# Entry
Amino acid sequence: MSDTVKQVAMRILDLREISDYTVEEMAEALEVPVEEYRKYESGEEDMPISFLVKLGEVFHVDMTELLTGETPRLNVLSVTRASKGREVNCHDQYVYKNLAYNFMNRKIEPMYVTVPPDVNKKLEPNSHDGQEFDYILSGSLRLVIGKHDIVLSPGDSVYYDSRYPHAMQAVGEEPVHFLAIVIP
# Structure
């Protein structure tokens, strides 16, 4: 696993130990099997963004702190220039860039997401508390939410309850780029 994943895993371990949680209590709080949690905390397996969002809620810690060890400092405004943003290396399938990583006490997690055309062929779903809004910028995205199977094109958007299992994949040969607003 990458150094970034191992560093995040070490921060999670430290938070759990400082908070006097057992591995079993954390797995239960995060609604994941104990062995899966152990793999995340040891850095053996990459963590999905839904896991990190939920972890931040449990510990009342900003996702930026989980991912970087740095505390967001801005509270009036945060500007992210084109093609910038803090890359969130939390999932092998997609590339996430947090567009407001340095703003304190965010109520949403705005992400620029890239879905390469050759990933998630088996449509492995995930779910997390909250809601999500996705706005397609380029490419075509197949999105499966529960029993719904839709294809979104540039300019299309979707808002959904992210507690329902959902999965996505690029349709065709070009990557999909979209803006995701995750609301914990």
